[in-house]
């Protein structure tokens, strides 16, 4: 007897998508697209670009889910989706930069801390949480992209619309500030 799709985890949905199961893909999309859309909007304020990246992400998932067995393990399917989306967003910024030679889209400022920030702060002691909150916003943005999103310096540079040297400098300043605050 076939289990109902709503009882399967995202990893199993991804495995079934890899075998060409359109219903599993639809269910994976239904569950993960709203979360992914919010996360992309935090990184880019251009709704058209976000919609394009979201579509490109799920097209890539449909095409390559079968070859990504390691990503289909329980708990990593959503992380694999975010990795694809983050790379697609960077590619979109690169295309836009080549086409228009204008600066990349600035990140959207959030009033409430991102879910990743709250989760990370929940696992850390209060001193580190306070030190992170005391950092200037431009240093926190660089840390978020490098540490939480796992982007490279080059990808962070493109995402935040600043030179790679500035990313490195801000990352170093953030580490020094955290070290001083915690000593």
Automatic annotation (TrEMBL):
Keyword Transmembrane helix assigned: no
Domain RNA polymerase sigma-70 region span(s) in chain numbering: 28-98
Keywords noted in UniProt: Sigma factor, Transcription, Transcription regulation
Domain spans labelled RNA polymerase sigma factor 70 region 4 type: 127-178
Pfam family of the protein (one): Sigma70_r2
Domain of life assignment: Bacteria
Family: Belongs to the sigma-70 factor family. ECF subfamily.
Cross-referenced NCBIfam families: sigma70-ECF (TIGR02937)
Protein name (record): RNA polymerase sigma factor
């Amino acid at each position: 007897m076939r289990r109902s799709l709503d009882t399967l985890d995202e990893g199993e949905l991804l495995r079934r998508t890899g075998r060409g199961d359109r219903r599993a893909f639809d269910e994976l999309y239904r569950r993960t697209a709203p979360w992914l859309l919010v996360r992309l909007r935090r990184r880019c304020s251009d709704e058209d670009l976000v919609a394009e990246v979201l579509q490109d992400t799920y097209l890539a998932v449909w095409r390559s889910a079968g070859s990504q067995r390691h990503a289909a393990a329980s708990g990593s399917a959503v992380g694999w989706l975010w990795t694809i989306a983050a790379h697609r967003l960077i590619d979109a910024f690169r295309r836009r930069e080549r086409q228009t030679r204008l600066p990349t889209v600035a990140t959207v400022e959030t009033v409430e801390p991102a879910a990743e920030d709250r989760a990370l702060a929940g696992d850390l002691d209060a001193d580190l949480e306070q030190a992170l909150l005391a950092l200037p916003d431009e240093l926190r943005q660089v840390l978020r992209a490098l540490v939480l999103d796992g982007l490279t310096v080059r990808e962070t540079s493109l995402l935040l619309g600043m030179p790679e040297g500035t990313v490195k400098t801000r990352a170093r300043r953030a580490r020094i500030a955290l070290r001083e605050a915690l000593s």
